Amino acid sequence: SPKMKPGAFRHQEQEMFRTVEAIHFTLLHDDGMGLDTINESDLIILGVSRTGKTPTSIYLSCRKLKVANIPIIAEEAMEDMLLGRLEGIRRRKLVGLIMEADVLTGVRTERSQVLTGSHQARQSIRPYADVDEIRREIRFCLSLFRDLGIPVVNVTWRAIEEISLEILNTVG
Predict the structure, then answer these.
(1) Does 90 or 41 have the greater pLDDT score?
(2) Pairwise CA distance, residues 84 & 77, whole Å
(3) CA angle 144-166-72, nearest 5°?
(4) ∠24-34-135 over CA atoms, to 5°?
């Protein structure tokens, strides 16, 4: 029966607002956007293209975490920029995602076929799905993650829930 007491659901409203705020933050900090406010993140996910950074970020944001994700491109200038930008951020906030090169090649090949219709377009994105280029990107990432001193999660053949749980267990 009703308690006839106002504010009985206030706690639930506050929890909902925290979740909405985290999701909003995460969407504004997807794919390297919002770097000027990245220090407000509860977690920053780094990794090469197609390693599940965005879906993992969204999943974790539904658990009230403000998550930013940054794609890693294998370029020296990127490394210098990231090391400088992330230097002041607590290391426990950072995690790197990697995937086995052969699996990532398949994922990127499938993705590129969906996005491109013409043979010419497929030729222009060939390096994106080239296994040797992907291996170079992964080596670059592992080196960067080592320089940053952050944990690495291998996402090969793993569900977003599994990846998220390992991240939460790893970074606390």
Answers:
(1) 41
(2) 11
(3) 25
(4) 105
35-53 burial, b at 16+ Cβ within 10 Å, e below that, comes to eeebeebbbbbbbbbbbbb
Q: Are 146 and 96 in contact (CB under 8 A)?
A: no
Question: Which pLDDT belongs to residue 83?
Answer: 77
**147: Cα within 13 Å, side-chain hemisphere:** 14
Rounded Cα–Cα distance for residues 35 and 22 (Å): 16
* CA-CA-CA-CA dihedral for 105, 107, 109, 111, to nearest 10: -150
In angstroms, the Cα distances linking 114 to 72, 98, 122 are 22, 23, 10
pLDDT at 120 over 60: no
Q: What is the predicted pLDDT for the residue at 112?
A: 79
